[in-house]
Design goal:
Elements: H1 2-148
Length: 149
Amino acid sequence: MSLGREFKSTFDDLAKRLSEQRREAESLKEQLCEAGQALTTANDKASARLSAILKEEKERAADERMTLLSQITTLVQANGDAQDKRLEAKVTSVQEEIKQSNVVYGRQEESYSKTMKIWSGKEQTLVDDMLKARENVKNKIKNDWTVSC
């Protein structure tokens, strides 16, 4: 009879251990299910956060591009204004030189005109004097010819 008790004890022990393993397996299954649900929830939150981050970064990048574009536009405009001012200053300087050259030319032309009038007057006087001298010489020659003949 001891063998029957031993078998009974062994089978009872085995049944008890199987029962404990089943409870442990059920507990592990439940824990795995909870972990899976927690993972799914965490992944959903992470995915939503990634979507929010992506949207936020796209908006920020668009704002930064607009700011950068505005800064570039301002820089290009400032550069253009500086170039315009330099060109205007150089053109004004050349125009001033042209005006001064015209003033100098005008004075020299006026001086030339006055001098030419004086020279023309002297030339006319010289021609008049030469004609008088010619007439005088001619008259002297006539007189001398008349006297000698």
